[in-house]
Amino acid sequence: MASPRALAGAFQAAYPNVRVQIFITERIVDQIAEGVDLAFRVGDLEDSSLVARRILTYRHQLVASPAYLAKHKPPKTPRDLLNHKLLAFSFWKPENHWVFTHANGKDKETLTFQPWLSINEYSGLAASLLAGSGIGDLPPIVQPHLLREGRLVEVMPKWHFRTFNLSVVHLGNRYIPQSVRVFKEFATQMAPTLFPSLPA
Predict the structure, then answer these.
(1) How many alpha carbons fall within 13 Å on the CB side of residue 50?
(2) In what order do the strands lie in the sheet with 50-59?
(3) Which of 7, 16, 18, 142 could be bridged to 122 by S-S, CB 3.0 to 4.6 A?
(4) Are 81 and 87 in contact (CB under 8 A)?
(5) Which pLDDT belongs to residue 58?
């Protein structure tokens, strides 16, 4: 995920004597056993021993490259997507599901499909989308410059994915070093600045 790396880079620019170790994984981390001071989590927390501070709220966007859309009729509804090469973030699942809600707040559709390409890393997915391989969903905190620069464009902007919360998390019953407390406050304040105007 790009957000922790961007925040860590900004933090070290402000505090150059602080050393940072980043461990990126999609699995749930045992923060005690693995010695992790802070974690970034997407979604709701089930572990009541953790303290979370929400730093961003956003929804994924369905995107494609202008080159791909120039060669294929752009979809207007979720069902139209079945006529396209679909790229998805996935853990070895043969099928994927995308749930859409129309901007009117009433119409909803669930699309079940077999991805043309699935990958469990968003930066790799972004590279494939940029190469014109198809249509896929990206969090707006992953390489946001690609949409700002028009190298990727949003597809079916009236149909939305659900929103997610990104939180910084630590153990509630454990001593937190000063540098970790400072980073938590820094992340809370800087995240909206690093990622302004997120789709929600």
Answers:
(1) 22
(2) 39-42, 163-171, 50-59
(3) 142
(4) no
(5) 93
CA pair distance 200, 189, nearest whole angstrom: 19
Provide the token pair at 165. Answer: 């919360």
- Helix residue ranges, H only, the chain: 2-14, 66-71, 122-130, 145-148, 178-194
pLDDT confidence of residue 140: 92
The DSSP annotation for 143-172 comes to STHHHHTTSSEESSTTEEPPEEEEEEEEET
Mean pLDDT by 10 residues, the chain (200 residues): 73 85 63 67 73 90 97 96 94 85 94 93 93 96 92 97 89 78 88 84
pLDDT of residue 134: 98
Instruction: Please list, in sequence order, all residues whose beta carbon lies within 8 angstroms of the beta carbon of residue 28, skipping any fewer than 6 positions away.
Output: none
**170 vs 50: CA distance, rounded Å:** 6
How far apart CA 38 and CA 169 sit, in angstroms, is 6
Q: What's the DSSP call for residue 50?
A: E
Looking at residue 47, its pLDDT comes to 63
Structure tokens at 25: 């994984």
Indicate the pairing of strand 153-154 with strand 163-171.
unpaired
- Listed in sequence order, the residues at least 6 apart from 39 whose beta carbon sits closer than 8 Å to its beta carbon are 29, 31, 168, 169, 170
